[in-house]
Amino acid sequence: MSGKIPAPTSKNSAGYDFKSIEERWKKLWYDNNIYKAVDFSPKEKKYILAEFPYPSGRSVHVGHMMRYTMPDMYSRYLRMKGYNVLFPMGWDAFGLPAENFAIKTGTPPQEKIAELSKQYKQAMQDIGYGIDWDREINSTDPDYYKWTQWIFLRFYEAGLAEMREEPVWWSDKMKTVLAEEEVIKDADGNLVAERDGSPVRRRKLRQWVLKITEYADKLLEGLQEIDFQESIKKAQTSWIGRSEGAVVKFPIWTADGEKTDLQVETFTTRVDTLYGVTFLVIAPEHEIVENLKGLAKNTEQLQEYIDKVSQKTDLERQQNKDKTGVRLEGVYATSPIDETQQIPIFLADYVIATYGTGMVMGVPAHDERDYEFADKFGLTKPIVIVDKDGNKLEDLEEYGYLTNSKDFDGMSSEEAKEKITKMLEASGMGESKVTYKLHDWLFSRQRYWGEPIPLIHRQDGTVEAVAHTDIVDEVEKNLPVVLPRVDDYKPSEDGSSPLERATEWVQTVDSDGNPAKRETNTMPNWAGSSWYYLRYIDPHNDKEFADMEKMNYWLPVDKYFGGAEHTTLHLLYSRFWHKFLYDQGLVPTPEPYQWRMNGGILLGPDGVKMSKSRGNVVEPQKLLEEYGADLVRMALVFLGPYDGVYPYNKNSFDSCSRTVSRLLDLSEKVGNIENADDLMREKRIIHKALRAITNMYENMKMNTAVSEIMTAVRDLREFDTIDPEVWSILLRMAAPIIPFVTEELWQKSLGYPEWKNENSVHLQEWPEVDESLLQEDTVEIPVQVNGKIRGKIEIPIDADEETVEQLAKAEANVARYLEGNEIRKFIYVPGKIVTIVV
RNA sequence: GCCGCGGUGGUGGAACUGGCAGACACGUCGGACUUAAAAUCCGAUGGACGCAAGUCCGUGAGGGUUCAAGUCCCUCCCGCGGCACCA
């Protein structure tokens, strides 16, 4: 070969022409839609869902492949297992990348998305995903977002969508508002937008919110019914942040001893510590401060503090947790249970305006923060909770028994909570209450590329829906509210939407025929993805978002795969939408997803997160070019478990190449075996592998499934002839992982007949394990003496304990350790192990 | 600080309900084929001692339960993810 230039070839490292093989079968599979999901099939259904991608960039990246390949293999397995499988795909295409591209180039996002989604679909077909493309959806298609808008109107009609003027997170770079969940802390601790890392600040704007807080309890309770990873349940639970407590009101008095109408309304989870209150704290941003600061004698000083706090960045506030505050001089409060007791009031920024009531009762002896504050301001710290012997508690926030609490002395914290709350309720000075950390969902964006919010602003300042969702004619006529084409996609400096400039579109008429203006804000990126799994069920329905009978058949989603970053965003939002729709009688199940697993991350070859700037990005297109789809699929899942975080490693490709190449060698040897012994051994090999691999597919452990294939192929190599039935099992069990090569070999074994769907290896029945072949007559088990393995014995599989004991004692090395000792205990775990204690 | 997940050979990772730790690979070493190399094939490969049979040690550290612990319990260390002055 020296000196010769090799002829151009599309052979890969496994030595076969993958391109022609892949082209041939790909075309037949998708032209004939062999992966069709059949509505109402008598077969049992399985709905396998992987989060639909946002088509940005040129094509799928390796992260997508990590996310979709395993679920594809799993659904292929289920299909062969005899299930009616729905494994759909679509495009979550509203949002910033297409819009930014539009701003830069003037290309309408509609066109860009059409182009990109085509490329993505092509790439997914190239990789060989078993998707029913008749159910492809696109969240930016008006036929799709018509129903996103329709559902929004349901929320609106139910009073769960509301317009509010409120301080919101704003990104100057993106010129849009962001939901609480979309703001994160970067490496330096600065608050930034999750999407692009741009800095954010608070700004007051008129915004639409969806009242997800009204579903807080339902979202929490629902978690108990579904199989999500524990980490996901915990994350959602702490995000919702439910805490039970009580509101306690403290009347406010002026310096002259006059009682005002104002009250410091605190929220506490420790109402049992009420007798330990020595001060009250109000968040400086709280609106009541406007009314209060005038009453105090130190108005100026208070204002100074308020100003200082408002200038503090959130970063400073988080980093510097030293307690600061100012007392409202002259003003004081009294205890709701004892008006003779005067309590000072402070403004302090350790209290958060947006949580609870924005005011707290300071109980320095039993709350760490209050303790620090009291320390700083020289306040007393009366102990009101002690242990049952009346001693001081080690942990100051622990529960115990009351002391210094008048009638309640000696009562347990739990009991006192109840009794004190009752007493407060009786006097109208308090009540039990539940609060949440969860905020309502900020649902409007000042951007072009999103679903228009289907509302109209009337001349009188009121708002109306473009259609009543229960009147079919209105819905038909008025939905969707289609995004108008505009010339300029740039957001406006003043925080209004670019749609504001589409004046013709904005002008409309209300239901009375009077001129009105359309709402120009659009929905956030999360809207379309909050219900897309419903649309896959009935993607072409133009009368409803999905047919109830079909939903009844397919729901809930059996397995849902996606990214960990969606735990408190998409996964919570869509559960909220679903629960709302359920309450409206529009979907048949209380939860959308029965089971969820978050995917891991593939790091660069250097073990660091892939990034363009680091130059450690693995390009799937290049991998496909070099190795072909089968090897890429196999090698990627062989790297490690689905939810793991590990580096890309070329080794995996080398070993998978070798295995596929050996598989091809085996295919040359298929024929009838004369030697009955060999046949039996082959059968044993394949059924043992089959049993293992079935279990691994079942548990979605594709990395070990690959190793089973490797082992089976290796073990079969020693035979000159491979039995056709053994071969058939091998191909079928490898088919979900390497669909192209196995199809090629399967069709070859059939003599390449004319294509028929039912001849595809992917629609064959999953082979049954023949357990009788795997029954061994004897088994080798270890013998322990005092916990250490001292020998191994061969025993008949059904040997009784006595026989085993004889054999064990007879083993030479074991005997050495038994010599001169009395056997105190003999344990035989059948078929597993023998333990002797001396 | 709180919550969750994890820590296993030189490396990626296996190990179902406690029952032979290190499957399957990569790498390394040795061998076969070759003029040579690549590819391919065969063998060895946790550490220590030993010619060997075998012995001792070994799943982040320390304790415990058990005939038996990577797996269960307690304390601690480290890494990753989430939350964080949330009353």
Structure write-up:
By secondary structure, the chain is α/β, with parallel strands linked by helices. 36% of the residues lie in helices and 19% in strands. Strands 11, 12, 13, 14, 15, 16 and 19 form a seven-stranded mixed beta sheet that branches. Strands 2-1-25-26-10 form a five-stranded parallel beta sheet. The radius of gyration is 34 Å and the shape is globular. The N terminus is likely disordered.
In short:
This protein is of the alpha/beta class and 838 residues long.
Tags for this entry?
alpha/beta, single chain, 28 helices, about 35% helix, globular, about 850 residues, five-stranded parallel sheet, RNA-binding, disordered N terminus
Task: Describe how the helices and strands are arranged.
Elements: H1 18-31, E1 45-50, H2 62-80, E2 84-86, E3 90-91, H3 96-105, H4 109-127, E4 137-138, H5 142-157, E5 161-171, E6 176-178, E7 183-185, E8 191-193, E9 200-210, H6 216-222, E10 227-228, H7 230-240, E11 243-253, E12 259-268, E13 279-282, H8 288-293, H9 299-311, H10 314-319, E14 326-335, E15 338-347, E16 359-362, H11 368-377, E17 385-386, E18 401-402, H12 413-427, E19 430-435, E20 441-442, E21 455-457, E22 463-465, H13 472-478, H14 503-506, E23 507-509, E24 515-518, H15 526-529, H16 532-535, H17 548-554, E25 559-563, H18 570-583, E26 595-599, E27 601-603, H19 620-627, H20 629-638, E28 645-647, H21 651-667, H22 676-698, H23 702-716, H24 724-734, H25 739-749, H26 771-774, E29 778-785, E30 788-796, H27 801-810, H28 812-818, E31 825-829, E32 833-837
Parallel strand pairs: 1-2, 1-25, 3-4, 10-26, 13-15, 25-26, 27-28, 29-32
Antiparallel strand pairs: 5-6, 5-9, 7-8, 9-20, 11-12, 11-14, 11-19, 13-16, 14-15, 17-18, 21-22, 21-24, 23-24, 29-30, 31-32
Helix pairs in contact: 1-25, 3-4, 19-20, 20-21, 21-23, 22-23, 22-24, 24-25
This protein binds one RNA strand of 87 nucleotides through helix 7, strand 12, strand 16, helix 11 and strand 28.
